[in-house]
Amino acid sequence: MKKFLLSLGLLIAASSGIIQAKENYYVKHLTFPEGISLNEKVEMASRLVPSRQQAEWQKLEMAAFIHFGINTFTDREWGDGSEDPKLFNPTELDADQWVRTLSEAGFKIVILTAKHHDGFCLWPTATTSHSVASSPWKNGKGDVVKELREACDKYGMKFGVYLSPWDRNAACYGDSPKYNEFFIRQLTELLTNYGEVHEVWFDGANGEGPNGRKQEYDWDAFYATIKKYQPNAVMAIMGDDVRWVGNEKGIGRETEWSATVITPGIYANSDKSNKALGITQKSSDLGSREMLADAKDLYWYPSEVDVSIRPGWFYHQYEDNSVKSLKHLSDIYFQSVGYNSVLLLNIPPDRRGLIHENDVKRLKEFADYRNKVFATDFVRKGDSYWKAKPGDSRVYRLNGKSTINMVMLQEDILKGQRVEKFTVEAQTNGEWKEVATGTTVGYKRIVRFPEVKAEAIRISITGSRNTANITKVAAYAAPTIEEAAIEGKDGKIITNATMLKSAPLTLDLGSKKQLTALTYAPASKKKAEKLAYHYTVSISTDGSNWTDVIVNGEFGNIMHNPQPQTVSFGKTVNARYIRISATSFDNSEADIESKEFSFFLK
Ligand code: FUL
User: Fold this and answer.
1) pLDDT in tens, 69-83
2) Which CATH number is associated with domain 386-476?
């Protein structure tokens, strides 16, 4: 698609023939000229910036997803399109309650499944009778999209639509030109009848299988329709503005490049170029120097972390007690917004057409917690713009002697994403000690570490593509979230450790505990070759002095039978912090997460 080169200053042709100038930026996409060096590529990469729409979108930080539709009434996650529209009959639908709840919880945009894979439309479309118009709800006179729009206007909430390209009801699906025309008519209705739309979400799922209907989507025409009617909207997932983070668990990458080598899936060359680089949307590295070395193009394509507050995307009564805990939600927040991503949290209304009381309660706790954490920034003068050359450090004084366990950094992404590596030190009684290290920053990066009492912090930009532009440095004290320990059959166990770092996995139990054993329960659906096979466990009471308790242990046969395995420490140990390094069967780093580990109390 289109390339933009925005010149804000004089362009100077360097001897290599590459265009270089201080005020020269590439908006959204750049193509590296053939034969340039890695250093020249890095220099260009540092000048890739978001489009205006992408920059605005990034600032939203928190988006709410609303999965609601025929599945709500059939208790399914994917409908097959044969459902009777008469099943759709919410008794108390109240979009005002949705948006009020979401607005109070800090969300800035709401995205509704106007049509999911089953093809049932939540607005009275002229394209098909498979819609609310054929339902008993409001005698077929209702329009969920309109009600949501009006509630969004009332609360100053931005509004987005999810329109599933895969449609299991439309008879023309698979007759490519016909369905594309049908889809564009649906899209046009949504983009012209409901005021301003800020995000259009095209899901990539398709479960047709090898013998199913094959549809060639006309992405260029879909894109042109959005540009024509809603020029301020971003096109997400099957789009080139917003990228799927690669999982539905709410886990972002610690190293998250918005300036990425992955080609958006809607471009004709995407398969070829991504294959050549050996990457998919799930790859852990999508933007390092190693990736730049082989890349031909670079895209500003920031990540969005989508996850549901419940196990399923649609409401199921049997999940009323499985609403994610405050601890889980706050971890998701720190691993999405805190990892240079936008969080897209799904809250599915129930059959009444209301956000269920349990979800309302949890959203309030979640907002209260964040408000508490961010109410006090202990850094003085953290807002002064800092142009940091690689290797530069800056000391920020704290208010008095403050206890902190979290530092936040922000880059001026309108000048590109540049920081590659940084360290955070804390000064206590005149002495400096490193408390955290990180890689990318981007729009926002939050690092967590064991709490420390300090009078100042020092940030060092140890690696950067060009001069880094730091707009904000802040320090906070996040209270530990206490959750009831779960009673296991073998005694009391702790399952709620806070993750401080993902590699090596470093956990904080909240306070000193006497421990006897650990259980590893690999999350389901994890690739067998990424499970932990060999591991070393170290413990600490203060977060800086570590003792090994198990060295090179083995979770035998875990690849073939990934069931929970418990290992004893052989004695009682005293620990607040636990560090687990693990490798998989082929000796590469294992993919482990805090929720896979629980600990036995003496
Ligand atoms: C997936 C879909 O298949 C799910 O049903 C859900 O809508 C999720 C957000 O995206 O690909």
Assistant:
1) 999 999 999 999 999
2) 2.60.120.260
